[in-house]
Automatic annotation (TrEMBL), chain A:
Belongs to the eukaryotic ribosomal protein eL24 family. One of its GO terms (molecular function) is structural constituent of ribosome. The keyword ATP-binding does not apply. It comes from Rubroshorea leprosula. Its main location: nucleus. Gene3D superfamilies: Ribosomal protein L24e. Keywords: Nucleus, Ribosome biogenesis. Residues 6-44 form the TRASH domain. This is TRASH domain-containing protein. It is found in: Nucleus. GO terms for cellular component: nucleolus. The keyword Signal does not apply. GO terms for biological process: ribosomal large subunit biogenesis.
TrEMBL record, chain B:
Keywords: Ribonucleoprotein, Ribosomal protein, RNA-binding, rRNA-binding. GO terms for biological process: translation. This is Ribosomal protein L14. It comes from the Eukaryota. The keyword Ribonucleoprotein applies. GO terms for cellular component: mitochondrial large ribosomal subunit. PANTHER family: 50S/60S RIBOSOMAL PROTEIN L14/L23, LARGE RIBOSOMAL SUBUNIT PROTEIN UL14M.
Length: 168, 164
């Protein structure tokens, strides 16, 4: 039994799933479900279809190079059955899977980090510039405790002080 | 035949829905829709009487028309034998035009279920000519052939370039 990869979306095809299409030049295309099969028949290029792994890897959305991927390479030589080897391999698969998925999640979260930092900066700017939409500037001048101090402080403190004018 | 009816009904149904959905787009869009439906919802069926198949060995014939499928009520599938009439042949070959021959279907556009539950389908309908005993007439087979021939047509498998 061998777990194949879908030609279009690169997900694993378990036994009993999907359709295999053999072209006349003897190239075999395996599809995990009819969605991928229909896209193939429409002659769509998986590298241009946003939800496929091919697109994500090409556009840097998912991790491309990692040592954990080496374990999944296709090996054509069948191994002689050895009970210990089989047992150890099963344990290793679990561990490697966990490490691999953790690394991939980390890759995605680092990619999304720059967006978070930007958003926070924009929020602070907006607060500084458009506070007149919430409280009239003359009111702020009278009661100086309501204005934001124009000094750079640590993140936790600014959050507490940003909340003040909102609560009014 | 039932399959053709079903596809026709689906086509009519879809064009109706298209008409109801966007009255403003006009006739052009519905005709385009019908074209694309035609392409996508192609129902592949059995190999039956009058099906023209490609011959993929060097027996001399090029195209062959099925007269009878020796197995199956609705028609032949991948791996079945058929009786066929040679429609097109090479000028100097073992088989001449108009001859009635037996053939084994080695590639079928209709998907065939495998023992592990998956399905295989090929690009076209192709046949290898055999004699009454099941021995191939030609000496070479072109293109991929399926595993399904393993039980009965071992000779064809040995001649094959690629087993899919």
């Amino acid at each position: 039994m061998r777990l194949e990869k879908c030609w279009f979306c690169s997900s694993t095809i378990y036994p009993g799933r999907g359709i295999q299409f053999v072209r006349n030049d003897a190239k075999i295309f395996r599809f995990c479900r009819s969605k991928c099969h229909k896209n193939f028949k429409m002659k769509r290029n998986p590298r241009k279809v946003k939800w496929t792994k091919a697109y994500r890897r090409l556009h840097g959305k998912d991790m491309t190079q990692d040592s954990t991927f080496e374990f999944e390479r296709k090996r054509n030589r069948p191994e002689r059955y050895d009970r210990n080897l089989a047992e150890n391999t099963l344990k290793a698969i679990k561990k490697i899977d966990k490490i691999s998925s953790d690394r991939q999640k980390h890759h995605i979260s680092t990619r999304l980090n720059t967006g978070k930092v930007k958003k926070r900066k924009e929020a602070r700017n907006e607060l500084n510039q458009s506070i007149h939409m919430i409280k009239a500037p003359s009111a702020l001048k009278e009661d100086s405790s309501l204005t934001l101090p124009k000094i750079k402080v640590k993140v936790s403190q600014t959050l507490a002080e940003e909340n003040q004018p909102m609560e009014e | 035949m039932a399959a053709a009816l079903v596809s026709k009904c689906s086509r009519v149904g879809r064009s109706l829905l298209g008409g109801l959905g966007n009255n403003t787009s006009g006739l052009l869009s519905t005709s385009n829709e019908i074209m694309s439906n035609n392409f996508l919802s192609q129902q592949r069926t059995f190999i039956q009487m009058r099906t023209v198949l490609k011959v993929v060995d060097n027996s001399g014939a090029k195209k062959v028309m099925c007269i009878q499928s020796l197995k199956g009520k609705k028609g032949a599938r991948l791996g079945d034998t058929i009786v066929a009439s040679v429609k097109e042949a090479m000028p100097n070959g073992k088989v001449k035009k108009g001859k009635v021959v037996y053939g084994v279907v080695v590639r079928a556009a209709m998907q065939r279920g495998r023992v592990d539950g998956s399905e295989v389908k090929f690009d076209d309908n192709a046949v290898v000519l055999v004699d009454k005993q099941g021995q191939p007439i030609g000496t070479r087979v072109f293109g991929p052939v399926p595993h399904e021939l393993r039980k009965k047509h071992v000779k064809i498998l040995t001649l094959a370039q690629h087993i899919a």
